[in-house]
Predict the structure.
Amino acid sequence: MNETMFFRETNARTLRGPYLLLGGEELTKQEALDRVLKTPDPGFSEMNLHRLKDVSARDLLGAAEQLPFFDAYHIVVVSDWSDAELYDGLMAEEKKLPGTIGRFFGLKDAIVLFVRRGDAKETNFSKLFSERDRVVRFDPLTPDRAAKFCMREAALKNAVIDDRTARVLIDMVGTDAYRLRNELGKAAGYVGAGGTVTKDVLETVVTPSSEYNAFRMLDALLIGNKKGALRMLEAELNAGRESAMGVAGFLEGRLRLMLIAREMLDRKRPRQEIVSRIGGSAYAAGIAIDSAKKHTAERLKNAVAALASVNALVKSGQCDERSALFDAVYRNF
C-alpha cells in the first residue's frame, strides 16, 4: 500500500487491522499518523487510543482485540518493538490457537499502527505485512513533491515562494520535509506577513547543508574563484565543526563523487544509474552530478590529487593540518 492509498482509506474511514509504517520521510509519516488519530469520535478518542512500547505478542493481541468505546473502532499505536521477538511471540500464539494471526490481520473494529522511524531490512515480521499489502512506505520526497510542499508550507505561513526559488531551497538543504519546514519558517518570518521569499532571502537566513557548502566551495575552486573559495573555507574552519584534515577529507570525498559522475556522464549513462553507482544519499549524489557537469574529468582528477596531498604533507611532518590544506589550495587551484 502506498502513501496515497493509505491517505484515501484514512479519509474514507475504511482502515482496519494492522499496518506497518516505515520509510525515511518522517514528517509525512507523522502527518499520516496524526490524520488517523483524528478519525475517531473526538468525545471518546482518548478512551479509544492505546500506545504500546516493547509490547509482547500476547499483550498486543489483547489490546487489539478490545472492543471500542462508543465508536466503530479503536486505535493501537506500537513503537520501539523487536521484530524478532514479536514475530516469535505471534508464532507461539498461532501454535497455541491456530488462526490467531489471520484474526489479527482481519480485525474489524481496530486499527493497529506499527510506526518505525526510518527504513528497515525485511524480516519475518515485516513479511507478515508485505504479504498482505499492509506495509506503508513514506519515501523521501522527490524534488517535484518537495517544491510543492515548500509552496504549500509558505502559504500556510502567509508567505509566497515560487517553484524556482523552492528548488533553490531544496538544493541548499535537501528534501527532508522537517528541514524544509524549519527553514521556510525562518524565511517567512524574515519577509513578514504577505512577503515573498526570494533567493536573496534564502541566502540570508537559511543554514545550508554541509553537502551544499562543500560543492559550492569546490565549484568556486574549480572555476578559479580562489578568493571566494578561500573565504568559504576560512568560514568553515572557523565554525569548528571539523578539523582541517576533516574538511580536506570531506572535500576530497566529494570530488571523487564528482569524478565518478563526470566519467559516467561522458559515457552517456542515465542519471538514475549514476545516482545508484555513487550510492549513499540521493540528495548528495544529485548535487555531485550537477556539479560534475560543469567540469572535465581531467580537471577533477587533478583536484582529487591536490586534496589527497594534504594527508601526505601532514603525515610527513612538513606542516600542520591547516597549513597543508591552504597550501594545497594555493598551489593547485
